[in-house]
From TrEMBL:
Domain of life of the organism encoding this protein: Bacteria
Organism: Isoptericola cucumis
Keyword match Oxidoreductase: yes
Protein's UniProt keywords contain Iron: no
Family designation: Belongs to the NAD(P)H dehydrogenase (quinone) family.
Annotated Gene3D superfamilies: 3.40.50.360
Domain Flavodoxin-like fold, chain residue ranges per copy: 1-226
Keywords: Oxidoreductase
Protein name according to UniProt: NAD(P)H dehydrogenase
Length: 277
């Protein structure tokens, strides 16, 4: 594998940092290649501004400034795609694109903060996954937008490695929610939307109270998952163009009848997903 490992934690000596070190070491020992983006160490700027797009911004004023004329409206999606095509995206964004172009596997590792990724990692996604690159890519034959199982990052697999403070209460009936559903915006709305195959996330629970024995077990689990990543397990999300959705993007009436909510977009092994004719 060629792995891009993206880390979001401000303390390299943290549990998250130690697990990253163990995981990267295991991958390299197994003959895999790893390139890292340690966002805090890089001083990554998480904020999208017109400066990301250079001369591709609408209007004569160029990048946004305090005295920018009111008529110069920044259309982020359109400006980002123009900058992508013209090669004028910010240098740090282009460097991340080079890493993604090289990788066949993307690992995002982070502590779960307020049921989501830290702001710096959200900003990495916001600035790097621009229109025309990760999303907004069209099939040249049909003109249909490629997404949810296809897209600009198709052909890659993605894994979220998450440290969670809670030791219990995670699951379908847990107070904190099922992790796959908690992470739905990342797993389904980002990984799957852009065409990446979504590995079941690795969760380290009770992270704030983990003792040495607990750490060794967590590190062992992570190493094993990383080295078997090509074979899964993967979240069996439904493909946009797999026949389960109608032209409005709604599940057809005969698909998973009675199911609703986030879980309806996952094919459940052993469950009759479609009514028989």
């Amino acid at each position: 594998m060629k792995v891009l490992w993206v880390l979001a934690h401000p303390e390299p000596r943290s549990l998250t940092g130690r697990l990253r070190d163990d995981g990267v070491r295991a991958l390299r020992a197994g003959g895999h290649e790893v390139v890292e983006s340690d966002l805090y160490a890089m001083g990554w700027n998480p904020v999208v501004t017109a400066a990301d797009f250079g001369a591709a911004v609408d209007g004569p004023a160029g990048p946004a400034s305090a005295d920018r004329p009111a008529g110069d409206r920044l259309d982020v999606a359109a400006a980002s795609e123009r900058a992508l095509r013209s090669g004028t995206l910010a240098a740090d964004v282009r460097a991340e694109h080079d890493k993604l172009a090289w990788a066949d596997t993307v690992v995002l590792q982070f502590p779960l903060w307020w049921h989501g990724v830290p702001a710096i990692m959200k900003g990495w996604l916001d600035r790097v996954f621009v229109q025309g690159y990760a999303y907004g890519v069209r099939d040249p034959r049909t003109g249909r937008t490629r997404r949810y199982g296809d897209g600009g990052l198709a052909g890659r697999r993605a894994l979220a490695v998450v440290t969670v403070g809670a030791g219990t209460g995670l699951g379908p009936r847990g107070l904190h929610g099922d992790l796959t559903e908690v992470l739905f915006p990342l797993l389904h709305g980002t990984f799957w939307y852009t065409g990446m195959q979504v590995a079941e996330p690795v969760a380290v629970r009770g992270a704030n109270r983990l003792d040495d024995e607990g750490y060794e077990q967590a590190a062992k689990t992570l190493r094993e998952r990383l080295l078997t990543l090509p074979t899964g397990p993967f979240v069996p999300y439904r493909r946009q163009d797999g026949g389960d959705y109608d032209t409005r993007g709604e599940l057809r009436a005969d698909v998973a009848p009675g199911a609703s909510g986030l879980g309806a977009h996952v094919r459940r092994p052993g469950r009759c997903d479609t009514l028989s004719a």
